[in-house]
Design goal:
β28 and β29 form a beta hairpin. The protein is of the alpha+beta class. Strands 3, 25, 26, 27, 28, 29, 30 and 31 form an eight-stranded antiparallel sheet that branches. α5 packs antiparallel against α6. The protein is elongated. It starts with 9 loop residues before the first helix and ends with a helix. The longest helix has 13 residues.
Length: 421
């Protein structure tokens, strides 16, 4: 497999990205086992070559994280998602999503893994993104807000009357004085809070950097099959309003109208809750009032010791082991017939047994299933497996170094993996 100079800092990556280097276990970042897809400002999606996947692992090294992003407009260049087909599941992300942008002609990448968000400053872009600089989308570094003008309310009402969905079409109606527009930064989320005497309900609106930085949001009702419900309707271009966010228990018998809150600012301070409007309706023969407020949540950027500890804990806990009859070529599907995945307990045993193995000058004869690959975080390592009588050997497939399992580990290895062969 071709090697890259970019891994000259592997000793640091071993710790920060969940990789370990101890005796037999010498896990290394393994871009060959990833697939990378970039979403570009023009909407195009492209596959990333292995050299770019390796570069992204280096660029998202947590040790490079900075505490803040400079003020100024941000030009979005693209968002890259790496997946690991051999091990991936929907609930188990193995690597941060990388969003590339510039501020004042300086380049940055925001790396996100679940709730962990951090930013590093970079000097070069992945080669696949070089041309994206000429089509970059511009986003403000603050969130801007305004209520709709009268003619925009009129257009909202007309758009809501258009048939949506399947026949019989539900009858939709926009509520006057509830339509507003926001200009969004390219990261974070908005939260709408519905407050009444019965409690609170929250609706989240995540920001998608692949969409334009504008969103129109209005309250409306929808009636079908003699049932009336209220909901939030959104649109990127003030047309159709097909995206629907519905609070819990939104069924009502009659909507009366809404009243706008006075003196709202044009720029939203992150974390501050702004009252937008209130509306009243009938339900179960009783009048109810809901107050609606808006909050913009800015991602909290982690850096330093806290980031290093969190991301190391997150990625180092993500382990997987595969036995395979054939050598891995890279990004095969996890469902290939020559792959044999092991369970959690067996996986923990294999990691422990190889950690405890002692270096030796020789190996045995190839096992019936001759290869095992260990995955941890963004790292991996493959061993050749061999036997000599009751002894079990693993050989580093890259260096050729041999290691012999302890006697008790060899017995358990046979019982777990060879008793049915």
């Amino acid at each position: 497999m071709k090697k890259y100079l970019i891994f000259s800092t592997l000793v640091i990556l071993f710790f920060l990205f969940g990789c370990e280097e101890e005796r037999a276990l010498r896990l290394q970042p393994a871009p060959e086992y990833y697939q990378g897809r970039a979403l570009l400002p023009n909407g195009q999606q492209i596959e990333m070559p292995e050299s770019d996947r390796a570069a992204i692992i280096e660029m998202c090294q947590p040790d490079h994280a900075i505490p803040t992003i400079p003020n100024g407009e941000r030009r979005w260049l693209g968002t890259i998602t790496l997946t690991q087909p051999l091990t991936d599941s929907a609930a188990n992300a193995n690597f941060p999503t990388a969003t590339f942008f510039t501020v004042e002609n300086k380049s940055y990448v925001q790396c996100q893994l679940d709730s962990i968000t951090y930013v590093t400053k970079i000097t070069t872009l992945p080669e696949s993104l070089n041309d994206a600089q000429y089509a970059a989308k511009t986003y403000p570094n603050v969130s801007k807000f305004r209520f709709a003008e009268p003619h925009e309310y009129e257009h909202f009402a007309q758009e809501m009357q258009k048939p949506i969905g399947n026949e019989p079409y539900p009858e939709r109606k926009g509520i006057e004085h509830t339509l507003f527009h926001i200009t969004m930064p390219f990261t974070g989320e908005f939260e709408l809070t519905f407050t009444s005497s019965e409690g609170e309900d929250h609706l989240k609106i995540p920001i998608d950097s692949s969409h334009p930085p504008y969103l129109s949001i209005g309250l409306g009702t929808e009636e079908s099959d003699d049932a009336l419900q209220y909901a939030i309707y959104t649109s990127q271009d003030q047309n159709n309003y097909q995206e629907v966010l519905r609070p819990k228990d939104a069924q009502i018998s009659q909507m009366f109208g809404a009243k706008t809150a006075p003196q709202l600012p044009s720029v939203l301070v992150p974390g501050h809750e702004y009252s937008l409007y209130s509306f009243t309706f009938m339900k179960d023969g009783t009048a109810h009032r809901q107050n609606v407020s808006l909050t913009y949540h800015e991602p909290q950027l982690l850096y330093g010791k806290e980031l290093n500890e969190q991301i190391h804990h997150k990625l180092s806990s993500q382990r997987h082991v595969i036995f395979h009859d054939l050598a891995l070529l890279g990004t095969e599907s996890k469902d290939e017939s020559f792959l044999h995945h092991v369970g959690h307990d067996e996986m923990e045993f294999i990691f422990g047994a190889i950690k405890r193995a002692n270096a030796t000058a020789y190996a045995g004869k190839p096992a019936p299933t001759p290869y095992v690959t260990l995955f941890q975080g963004v790292c991996a390592q493959t061993f050749d497996v061999s036997y000599d009588g009751a002894d079990v050997y693993v050989t580093n497939s890259e260096t050729g170094a041999h290691f012999k399992l302890l006697r008790e580990d060899a017995i358990k290895w046979y019982n777990l993996f060879e008793q049915n062969t």
